[in-house]
Amino acid sequence: MNTVERELRSQIISKALWMNNSGLNQGTSGNISARYEDRMLITPSGIPYETLEPESISSMPIDGEYGTWEGLFKPSSEWRFHLDIMRARPEVNAVVHTHSIYATTLAMARRDVPAAHYMVAIFGGDSVRCSEYATYGTKELSDYALQALAGRNACLLANHGMLVTGPSLEKAMWLAQELETLCRQYYQALLIGGPVILSDENIADTMKTISSYGLQDKKE
Predict the structure, then answer these.
(1) 217 in a domain, yes or no?
(2) 128 lies in which domain range?
(3) How much is the pTM?
(4) pLDDT tens track for 32-52
(5) Region for residue 86 given its phi and psi (left: phi exceeds 0; alpha: psi -120 to 50; beta: otherwise)
(6) How many domains does the chain have?
(7) CATH of the domain at 80
């Protein structure tokens, strides 16, 4: 393991710990992956984040034999949608999945998040879709996730949680936090009669400038 890979593995652990400490996730219910060259590094299944070391992170070939892995522990039970996203979306270098409270609440109601706030545009369009339901860890769930992510960098997984992608770990985690905030705001607006939904024109105007908003990745 070279220095670059070790650092990326350490970053995955750091983000997993932050994810729980911030309230964005609980226990080991969430999972995080990152692209490293031709492999995917992913948090292992059921191992408390506090006990993880760089060597604990599982490694899977992106374009090699489907489902094969290397490491001390087997990969997260949700490795399929992580891997399938990275196979289908070469611009994605990190995937974050959490069971955050408000995103999961809306997912349990199988609600899309509409254009109730202009920040929905940072997720790629005029809504954050909720996928169809399938059992966790299955290829069916992965297929539904990819459908809900079409043209988007995030979605809700029905009766499950949130799924966010990004060009880096930092950006993916920032987007996950923003999605939970948006879900909380939408939920609370529903309690007082429902939000006023922005028009397609409003969102189109926002989309022109939103790519430069918020956390930016460093230029190489």
Answers:
(1) no
(2) 3-212
(3) 0.93
(4) 999 999 999 999 999 999 999
(5) alpha
(6) 1
(7) 3.40.225.10
